[in-house]
Amino acid sequence: MGCHPTRCGEFLTAPEEYYEALKGKISSNRKKIVAIGECGLDYDRLHFCDKETQKMYFEKQLHLAKEFQLPLFLHCRNSHEDFMDILERNRSVFESSTGGVVHSFDGSLSEAEKILNYHPQLYLGINGCSLKTADNLTVVSHLPNERLVIETDCPWCGIRPTHAGFQFVETKFPTVKKKEKWLAESLIEGRSEPCQISQVLEIIAGVKKESINKLADVIYNNTIRLFFNKEMK
Questions:
Q1: Which of 75, 98, 121 marks a domain boundary?
Q2: DSSP state of 196
Q3: What is the C-alpha to C-alpha distance for residues 227 and 142, in angstroms, rounded to an integer?
Q4: 135 in a labelled binding site
Q5: Residue 113 belongs to what H/E stretch?
Q6: Quick check: is 194 in a domain?
Q7: Nearest to 65 by CA among 1, 156, 136, 108
Q8: Within a domain: 105
Q9: 3-state secondary structure (DSSP) of residue 100
Q10: What's one GO MF term for it (predicted)?
Q11: 153 labelled as ligand-binding?
Q12: ω into 38 cis (within 30 of 0)
């Protein structure tokens, strides 16, 4: 539960009322809500919300993670320097939460290292957008398995045949071009679906030249540790 950076303008009419409404939703749905977010910065889509507004309300939402003892689901798009500045300025707040993940990571290895060095409970989320180019694959090949979680970000960030990572995909799904022709056993072309998380795993395993099953166990354990504060038995 949180406010996406491109929607932070929604705070402006009545900032405290909006913030209190978020708190109320979290308080009344504790059994359903497993993270605060997604929140962060998105400088690729400033036509939705300006930088200063994004920064102000990203910082404010960090306190929700501390108050409710929940991890953060974080968004960082073309904004690494400001994103890390805000995290550094709020290190004590982050350390009072239960960790977080920078989802849909597609940055450089240097940016990844800065995120991972920030705190041992801050993970990187990998999806189709993280696996588009040869440079993306090189970055992923160097990331420690113990700090990864995987996602699809459906209906966005699908894995396409033109993407560098597609060569490692083993699981294929039947597709239809038009939604009007959709059948229960098929996908709509160009739309990402939750079942395609298996393809994300296959690409990472292929790039790293590792066992899919062993990698799946590590990433699963990362996920339940972060979001459910448990260890795999």
A1: 98
A2: G
A3: 24
A4: no
A5: helix 109-118
A6: yes
A7: 1
A8: no
A9: strand
A10: 3'-5'-DNA exonuclease activity
A11: yes
A12: yes
Region class of 90: left (phi > 0), else alpha (psi between -120 and 50), else beta: alpha
Residue 75 in marked binding region: yes
95 is in an annotated binding site: no
Helix (H) or strand (E) holding 37: strand 36-42
pTM (whole model) above 0.90:
yes
Report the greatest alpha carbon distance in the chain. 52
pLDDT along the chain (233 residues), means of 10: 97 97 97 96 98 98 96 97 97 92 98 97 97 98 98 96 97 93 91 96 98 98 92 60
Contact 196, 173 (CB under 8 A): yes
Segment holding 134, helix H or strand E = helix 134-142
Same domain, yes or no, for 80 and 137? no
Residue pointed to by tokens 């999806």 = 127
| CA angle (16 as vertex; 49, 56 as ends), nearest 5 | 40
Range of the domain at 209: 130-232
